[in-house]
Design a protein that fits this description.
By secondary structure, this protein is of the alpha+beta class. It has three helices and four strands. It has a single domain (2-80), classed as Glutaredoxin, CATH 3.40.30.10. It has helices at residues 13-25, 42-48, 72-80; strands at residues 2-8, 31-37, 54-57, 60-64. It has a four-stranded mixed beta sheet with strand order 2-1-3-4. The chain is globular and about 35 Å long.
């Protein structure tokens, strides 16, 4: 199971867009979301408040603001499953 953590805040359209894109990229892989309101934690707000959405894949920082465009699916799967062979 791929664990995805999205640092977000209510009403963030970029956050909604990133989540839709990742869901589409991982449509054939089991994945689970944890969405964290960045404003509920002062440390998260200080570190990431100006950079949301922020996506962590299996605990590793993957993207800030937008998904990387170059081979997004390959990069996402590589972070999610380090031993993957595509």
């Amino acid at each position: 199971m791929i664990q995805l953590t999205l640092l977000s805040r209510p009403g963030c359209h970029l956050c909604d867009e990133m989540r839709r894109e990742v869901d589409a990229l991982l449509a054939d892989r089991p994945h689970e979301w944890k969405v964290v309101d960045v404003d509920t934690d002062p440390d998260l707000a200080r570190r990431y408040g100006d950079s949301i959405p922020v996506l962590f894949v299996n605990g590793h920082l993957f993207a800030k603001i937008r998904l990387p465009r170059l081979s997004s699916k390959f990069r996402l799967l590589r972070v999610a499953t380090p031993s993957i062979s595509l």
